Structures are given as structure tokens and as C-alpha cells.
């Protein structure tokens, strides 16, 4: 009898708690992720699940935003409509789980969502839009890998401004998400928003806005007629500056290679009869790659200089052709000069094996990095060819990593 009275008394305690305090109690339980108290509250006062706070959020909103997977599963079992309730900003629990990057919770909520494409906030944004804006790459990646067509079709949905997730990824500088979206064949990379902008247009517009560029005043528009074959003056100046820079580099390479050709490592033989002037280290194994690479650097630098002289004759088409030929040739010349330096240094320290090995490993790593950085300069900026996209995949990932590290540091 005493146990029965205690049970009735404990049930009566819940009935005395007003709804405004009930929500606070339930939210605190979810934030603390207290499984036992959550089950007891739902068992005694199930209607508290539907009580909302001043932001219009119910208990499932808070469980989703904190990534409390058990709480989400438990609440979904006892409330089949909570997943479809908005807060004051139009956010569903799915939006909050996506914004905080809780992929497992997103998966569970999607399983209990009849039509994921209808889950949009007051601005028409679905969970991919929200994840993209915040930068939650794992959520976007999960949606792209989902086998449910209803889920995956969200990647091309537009918000109230007509922006797809790709538009937002470009305008919010999310390179990893841009890469993931553009690699998926279902993503429409040519889709236009309400301002007739593609994702690339959107990126350009955002960069101009951040630089403080103002819109033209009404009535101040002018029409400028230009020849389609003649580039703008600024563009011509850009190519001239680039040509001059490459000429300076090629001239320096030629000078260094010429000097190295007459100041060989180890010097020349001046004492042995009949061998005067012959290189002392002529029979050394590393002398052959040294002399080969220094010769290639010498004539490579001269060739680049001559090609760039042709580029300065005034014809823009010839200048572009010269740049396309000179840039990779200069890269090869820089590589041979780097190898020549490695071989020359190795020649004079080869008797000390540990130092020679250390310098060899260090130089190989640095030469590889230099070639990688230089290759990125003349890689095609755009290509729909699948082979070229696979080739450019890892350099792009490298640049993405550098960009994200720099932005996180700020």
C-alpha cells in the first residue's frame, strides 16, 4: 500500500509543473543527455514534447541541434509530427542538425521524413543549402551519397532567390563543397538563379561586392563597341607584364647555367700532362647528370628568351601562343637547373655519406614541391574533359587544403 501511494504521489508531482517550466525542464534534460529522466518525462507527460519555447522550438529541435541521437530516436517514436514542426525562423529539426554537422541525426530524421524536399525554411532553403552556408561538408557528402532519389534531388533545389547549393558554395567560399558538387554528375552546374547568374557569376559578384564595388547609377549606362578580336588595354598590359617577368627569369637561368658550365664542381685538372683543363670529377657518377642538366638549363633558358622576344612583336595572338609554349618549357628548365644543383652539391660532399644522403632526400622533396607549385600555374583553369578533371583533382585538393588552413587561421 505504501509503495502504491508513493507511485501516485510521484505522478502527481508532474501534474503540478506548469508548461512554461516543463519546456525548460525537458530542454535541460536533453542538453544533459539524461536518458532516464527523458524517458520518465515522456512516459508521465507526453504532451510536453509539443511545448515550444519563445523561439518556437520543440524538444526535437534541441535534440537535433545537440546531436543527441538517442533522444532524437526516442522522441520520434513518441511523436510522429515533431519532425515536421518549424520554429519562428522556419527551421525544422533537420535544418538544425545539418547546421551543426550531426550526420547521424540527419540520417535518422530523413528516414522519418516523407518528403525531404519540402523541408525548407522561410527563405526556401533546404538542408543542403544550410549545410553549404555553414560549411558542413560531411552533411553535403552524405546527401550526395544517399541512394534515395528524393534526398539526392535536393542538390539542385533553389531557394527563394533561385540559388542552388552550388551558388551558395561559390559565394560563401566553400572550396571542398564546390569540388564535391561539381564532381557529381546530377548537379546542374549551369543552373541560373533569379538574377540569371550561374555559380561562377555568383562568385564573381560576391568578390566584387566585398571589394566595395558599387552598382552603376540609373541612367548612366553606356554602350561601348569593341572589336571582338582586339583585347582590352588592361588585358594586353597583363600579358606584357607576364612576358617581361618570364624573360627576367629565363635570363637569370641562362646566366647561372653559363657560369656553372665554366666553374665545374671540383675544378679542372691543371697538373697532369695531356689532361689540362679536363674536369677532375669527370668519371664520378654524379658528374654526368650535372653536366647534362646544366646544358639543358642553358639552352632551355635561351630558347624561352627567344620565344618571349617573338611575343613582344605586338600581335596578341602570337603573344598568347608564345606564353603557352614558353611557360611549360621554363618549368622544365627550372627543373633541370634544380637537378643540376643537386648533382653539383652531391659531387663535392659525396665522401661524407650521411650528409650526402640527407641533402639528396631534402633536394628531391623540394624539387617535387617546386614542380607541383609551378605546374599549377599553367594547368587549364576550366575543362569538361573527365580525364583532365581527374588529373587536376589532387592539385585542387592541395590548394583547397591551403585555402582552408589560411581561412581557419584568420
UniProtKB/TrEMBL annotation:
Pfam family, one: Ank_2
Keyword set, alphabetical order: ANK repeat, Membrane, Repeat, Transmembrane, Transmembrane helix
Gene Ontology cellular-component annotations: plasma membrane
Membrane topology field: Peripheral membrane protein; Multi-pass membrane protein
Subcellular location: Cell membrane; Membrane
Swiss-Prot/TrEMBL ANK repeat ranges: 89-112, 161-181
Protein name: PGG domain-containing protein
Amino acid at each position: 500500500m505504501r509503495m502504491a501511494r508513493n507511485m501516485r504521489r510521484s505522478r502527481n508531482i508532474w501534474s503540478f509543473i506548469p508548461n512554461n517550466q516543463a519546456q525548460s525542464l525537458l530542454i535541460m534534460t536533453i542538453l544533459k543527455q539524461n536518458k532516464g529522466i527523458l524517458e520518465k518525462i515522456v512516459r508521465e507527460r507526453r504532451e510536453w514534447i509539443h511545448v515550444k519555447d519563445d523561439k518556437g522550438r520543440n524538444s526535437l529541435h534541441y535534440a537535433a541541434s545537440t546531436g543527441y541521437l538517442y533522444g532524437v530516436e526516442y522522441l520520434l517514436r513518441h511523436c510522429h509530427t515533431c519532425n515536421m514542426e518549424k520554429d519562428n525562423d522556419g527551421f525544422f529539426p533537420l535544418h538544425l542538425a545539418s547546421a551543426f554537422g550531426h550526420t547521424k541525426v540527419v540520417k535518422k530524421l530523413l528516414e522519418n521524413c516523407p518528403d525531404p524536399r519540402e523541408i525548407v525554411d522561410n527563405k526556401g532553403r533546404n538542408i543542403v543549402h544550410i549545410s553549404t552556408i555553414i560549411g558542413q561538408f560531411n552533411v553535403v557528402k552524405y546527401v550526395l551519397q544517399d541512394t534515395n532519389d528524393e534526398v539526392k534531388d535536393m542538390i539542385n533545389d533553389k531557394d527563394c532567390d533561385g540559388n542552388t547549393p552550388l551558388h551558395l558554395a561559390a559565394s560563401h567560399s566553400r572550396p571542398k563543397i564546390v569540388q564535391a558538387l561539381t564532381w557529381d554528375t546530377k548537379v546542374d552546374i549551369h543552373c541560373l538563379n533569379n538574377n540569371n547568374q550561374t555559380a561562377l557569376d555568383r562568385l564573381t559578384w560576391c568578390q566584387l561586392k566585398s571589394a566595395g564595388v558599387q552598382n552603376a547609377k540609373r541612367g548612366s549606362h553606356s554602350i561601348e563597341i569593341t572589336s571582338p578580336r582586339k583585347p582590352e588595354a588592361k588585358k594586353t598590359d597583363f600579358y606584357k607584364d607576364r612576358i617581361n617577368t618570364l624573360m627576367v627569369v629565363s635570363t637569370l637561368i641562362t646566366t647561372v647555367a653559363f657560369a656553372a658550365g665554366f666553374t665545374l664542381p671540383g675544378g679542372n685538372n691543371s697538373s697532369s700532362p695531356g689532361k689540362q683543363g679536363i674536369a677532375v670529377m669527370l668519371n664520378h657518377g654524379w658528374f654526368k647528370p650535372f653536366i647534362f642538366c646544366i646544358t639543358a638549363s642553358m639552352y632551355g633558358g635561351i630558347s624561352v628568351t627567344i620565344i618571349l622576344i617573338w611575343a613582344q612583336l605586338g600581335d596578341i595572338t602570337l603573344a598568347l601562343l608564345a606564353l603557352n609554349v614558353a611557360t611549360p618549357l621554363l618549368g622544365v628548365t627550372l627543373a633541370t637547373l634544380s637537378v643540376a644543383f643537386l648533382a653539383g652539391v652531391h659531387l663535392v660532399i659525396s665522401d661524407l655519406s650521411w650528409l650526402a644522403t640527407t641533402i639528396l632526400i631534402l633536394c628531391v622533396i623540394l624539387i617535387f614541391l617546386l614542380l607541383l607549385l609551378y605546374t599549377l600555374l599553367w594547368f587549364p583553369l576550366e575543362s569538361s574533359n573527365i580525364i583532365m578533371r581527374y588529373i587536376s583533382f589532387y592539385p585542387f585538393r592541395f590548394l583547397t587544403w591551403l585555402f582552408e588552413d589560411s581561412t581557419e587561421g584568420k
